[in-house]
């Protein structure tokens, strides 16, 4: 049976004006931090509603951030963003396979010497990790080099990462060990409890990440060699495998039938608008797939309770922040898509984030947050010295007073980006005439959530555009980007889309290649006087001549499987110069 969430009234927050450096508090003041990071968990198909223990121990004691986003909807790039605080265009880890992604690319980019666990250790924390770290972290390359910065670790390794009944773990300096026939999440739970005990006994504040693979598809096995194209031909993704004790649960559960479930008319852009309607046979399979995802999350739910109860028994729960989130979202049957991710639709990018801890209010928050914000948040909690350089996010509000402060100043946008292929999971491929096993989905996009508007704007590498008004069209079924001069001009905030688009184009030009401060405050590049911080403020009529003169916009030279700068199109942002006249236009490189 589906469990309803009973949450307090919503809180509506935004960003504190943090100084560049924080003082390190005394040891006993610093909190412990526990992160539970699932894999491919959805928000828009209600998976969290089927986790009663998560509700009991975390949701009912903390804040559910309903507007939390991943900036890249695929495993490895999203995880690298999470642990470095940098967008994928700044890490250049954009895929799950080499040469454009995976653990070898993470190492080659120098991040094994410059990432969150090392920063936390420098701040005096003990650091622990168990579960999936990155794709292409394997039984062959686990020690070449070993992931740095962890006081103690126990990693899941490819090619067996996604095999629920054939996991391989690798602890500290010891060689990998196979756990064939045992249930992966249960093994992980015991390892997590052991590391939690180590952290409690360490005499220091500790940071622990527990990263189960649920509810990711079962992959038998995950390819680790060859080109990405060869790997995709060999890959076999099927429904996740629940523990025996959970296989009987939720017999009547089905994918929620919302407006974008297998719609009558195709939508989107590029290959998505060519997808055929799913057949009854495929829908039945997809419902079974969905049910299996709910079932595998029950072992994660038990893990959550185990962590909380052990913290409570040790007397450390009240000084511990617990973050529950996932790397990216997931779709099943929305927009005629078979199971998978890697798209810019809300199902793939808007994901769960729930936080419990000292001073965290109980309820829901509509503040806009992203994975780039989590590393700065952890560093702030740890009292670590850090500045904006190299970090593309800002700490999320965690206390009631922070939420009030941020109503006036927090950013309302998230930049969304993707390079590479979309891969259908399960037994059915894309319903396209060419029968391809994957499709190019390279995009640069913006997700903007303001007080009176909610927009998604994207440019594909084919130079097709999408614009959705999620206030009136939450299922993203009606692309309102004008495709002809005769098309009726719809309005946003009472303003014709034709006048909104130049503002969005200018903002996307900044965010597509932003770094550090400009990722958090992109309007400061376009309006350096500081008088514009939101899209609504940019819509002031005094800027009409400026924006009507803007010709530079995001476009692509060609589609690529990775971040190839020369194919990314224009790299200059436009700047409005105060005092030079409202019709003056200047160009300035970021």
Automatic annotation (TrEMBL):
Residues 1-17 form the signal peptide. It comes from Hyaloscypha hepaticicola. Belongs to the sulfatase family. InterPro entries: Alkaline_phosphatase_core_sf (IPR017850), Arylsulfatase (IPR012083), Sulfatase_CS (IPR024607), Sulfatase_N (IPR000917). The lineage of its organism: Eukaryota, Fungi, Dikarya, Ascomycota, Pezizomycotina. Keywords: Glycoprotein, Hydrolase, Signal. Residues 31-384 form the Sulfatase N-terminal domain. It comes from the Eukaryota. CDD domains: G6S. One of its GO terms (biological process) is phenol-containing compound metabolic process. Its EC number is 3.1.6.1. The modification 3-oxoalanine (Cys) is found at residue 75. SUPFAM superfamilies: Alkaline phosphatase-like. It catalyses: an aryl sulfate + H2O = a phenol + sulfate + H(+). The conversion to 3-oxoalanine (also known as C-formylglycine, FGly), of a serine or cysteine residue in prokaryotes and of a cysteine residue in eukaryotes, is critical for catalytic activity. GO terms for molecular function: arylsulfatase activity; glycosaminoglycan binding; N-acetylglucosamine-6-sulfatase activity. This is Arylsulfatase. It holds the Pfam family Sulfatase.
